[in-house]
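Weekly modeling sync, notes
Attendees: AB, CL, MP (scribe)

Item 1: holo prediction request
CL wants a bound-state model with L-galactonic acid before deciding which constructs to order. AB pointed out that an apo prediction alone won't tell us much about the pocket. Agreed to run with the ligand included and paste results into these notes for async review.

Input as submitted:
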Amino acid sequence: FKKALPCLFALLSLSGCKPDKDEPEFLLRTALLVNEEHTWYKAFVYFGEILEERSKGRIKVEVYPSEQLAKEIEAIRLIQADVIDMTTTGSTLTNWFEVATFCELPFLMQDSTDMNRYINGPIGKLMEEEMINKSGLRPLGHFERGPRHLTSNRPIRHPDDLKGLIVRVPNVPSFVTLWKALGAKPTPMAFSEVFTSLQQGTIEAQENPFALINNAGFAEVQKYLNLTGHVMSWVYPVMGEKQFQRLPPDLKEIFLEAAKDMQAYEHRLFLENEKKVQDALKAKGMEFIEVDKEAFQQKCEEAIYNSLSPEMQKIYDQLKVE
Ligand code: 2Q2
């Protein structure tokens, strides 16, 4: 019972069983996977500030970093269950609806121009509809990310160097397909478990954008930053659709406007940060390795295409010729 006590308290306060006089009308609990130094965290804190101000204290946001409140998949489930309210997510939603795979499909987007074309085109619209209808989440904008690169303790220049390498991947099917096709051993795992698993050697590598590699302190346990750039992506800050619909019309308007400002704020921080985090990673001793990107792409393209349903293959073909 003693052990269960903290959980019980956490649950009681989460389900609002302990009313507090100072509680705002709408308290929005946000579970993030990044820590306090990351632009997503800063963006949500800013969101909270402007929401509180513009709603005259009727809305308040609490932001929990480092998966302290919930891991990404759990956060989605807790939002669906109306226990918490917001998080960031993207291709992990493939577990709910397939078109989400295009947020992070390997070697699909080349740059942020492609990305914005997808987000603002029919594919982005479809994704937003499916997100509300199939996962009960409302996208509040999007956060562009830098390309994902592989980190490891032996240099990887070519897919042949990957043989048997145990690579942590997020809980996203296309990532498993990718690293299997390349000859590595992909292991899906929640983000907050990655550092310790690298330290203990149960996994040997992981892949993420510069900003998150730096944020999570992976330089302490990984020597090489192999510039695979295999995935360009974005994530959505999201809120439960039920929770959103509960807001009265005046607050809905304030909320959506503030969400736009949050996205612009995050994007500024992201752009400022991209170079700084690379310098930080080098300063922490990481060695950047040029890779044969062509070889990586060639080796996995077919497997990724074949893993898509016929419907998604059609979308893929369209995106490729545009
Ligand atoms: O490595 C991670 O866990 C993140 O960078 C994920 O890419 C991110 O959580 C996405 O999978 C978004 O759904």
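Recorded for review: The two ends are 60 Å apart (CA to CA).
Action items: CL to compare against the apo run; MP to circulate these notes.
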